[in-house]
Specification:
350 residues; alpha+beta; Luciferase, domain 3; Rossmann fold; six-stranded mixed β-sheet; 26% strand
């Protein structure tokens, strides 16, 4: 990657996590669960009586109820021939059906395939073919004898997001169990979620990296409650959220599916000093600049860290152009100040 590459490590002291250490030149988390299914299983057992989710009608479901329903979906998928590492497209509006289907695929040992919420019917058909999905869940949720797969390893594929790429079309972003679990740990730590019963309003479609990886999964991991406010393809306006939840803690950030949905965070404490910034790296994320003005702190933003995807699914050319030496080329032009805060100058049009 040339002509110039300048790396920025570290970040604000209050965002650093002692569990992140450098291995073979890249930051990684210590002590992660082997896979997403095991993390969520432990959470379901620990917080069985707590309310896990509330739908748009105000109906609640406990962790025990959610996990039992998901296990029955897993059994139903097993009856349809879904096995370990098989891909299954999940395509519902935000709500209990989406949660049951997504978690059911995880418990069956499969890989949830999450389409961009703006996909057309023709694009959905292409995603099914490109991903090699065994089935697409978009109607009645499968139901069978409760089943829980034995689990997977950290390096195995855990989730496949289909996102729009520069120039048009779609491609799948591969995230491993380690990628997903690292994002969860980073969000829990940076936002200080704890296990005190946090309540998270899902403001994005659950099929997106923000809705799933940044909002849903970290909340479930700590026994919190998710409120499915945003419908599929519809984002809840920020001003409406602030008016509805005036005491909520608001955190800005930046991320894309390739970084697990988030990679930079700007807590409210830093906004006065850095009003234009989109955040600072956290959770083992490192950022770098590529381009002739990189030495001056301006260039294309590159990211590297434990939550960064390894490649695109079935797209070797896109992978070669975008990933290299552990770095992900975002295509965004940014400025990085001496404290590591990133300001966007131009965004690559997709």
């Amino acid at each position: 990657m040339s002509p110039a590459l300048v790396r920025f490590s570290g970040g604000a002291a209050w965002l650093r996590d002692e569990r992140v250490t450098r291995h073979a030149g890249v930051f990684r988390y210590e002590g992660l669960e082997p896979c997403l299914a095991e993390l969520l299983d432990r959470s379901a057992l620990r917080f069985a009586q707590r309310t896990a989710a509330v739908d748009r009608a105000g109906r609640g479901i406990t962790y025990r109820e959610l996990w039992a329903a998901a296990a029955r979906v897993a059994g139903g998928l097993l009856d349809q021939g879904v096995g370990p590492a098989d891909r299954v497209v999940v395509h519902y509006r935000n709500g209990f059906d989406w949660l049951h289907a997504f978690l059911g695929v995880v418990l069956a040992g499969g890989v949830p395939v999450l389409p961009d919420p703006t996909c057309s019917d023709a694009e959905l058909e292409w995603i099914v073919a490109d991903s090699g999905a065994i089935v697409m869940l978009d109607g009645k949720v499968p139901d069978g004898v409760a089943f829980l797969d034995g689990g997977a390893s950290p390096e195995e594929l855990a989730l496949l997001y289909y996102v729009r790429k520069c120039g048009g079309g779609l491609h799948g972003v591969e995230l491993t169990n380690e990628n997903i679990l690292s994002t969860i740990e980073a969000v829990v730590h940076a936002m200080d979620l704890g296990v005190g019963g946090v309540r998270t309003v899902i403001t994005a479609p659950l099929s997106t990296a923000v809705g799933c990886g940044v909002q849903l999964l970290p909340t479930l991991s700590v026994g919190g409650t998710v409120v499915a406010a945003g419908a599929r393809g519809i984002r809840v306006p920020w001003r409406h959220l602030r008016a509805s939840f005036p005491t909520a803690r608001c955190v800005r950030g930046w991320g894309v599916a390739e970084t697990g949905g988030i990679g930079l965070v700007l807590p409210i404490e830093a906004r006065q000093r850095h009003p234009r910034s989109i955040g600072i790296p956290f959770g083992g994320m490192e950022v770098a600049l590529l381009g002739p003005d990189a030495e001056r702190g301006v260039g294309e933003l590159l990211c590297r860290g434990p939550s960064v995807a390894r490649r695109y699914w079935n797209d070797p050319q896109g992978t070669a152009e975008t990933f290299g030496d552990g770095w992900f080329r975002t295509g965004d032009q940014v400025e990085i100040d001496e404290d590591g805060f990133v300001t966007q100058l131009a965004v690559r049009v997709s």
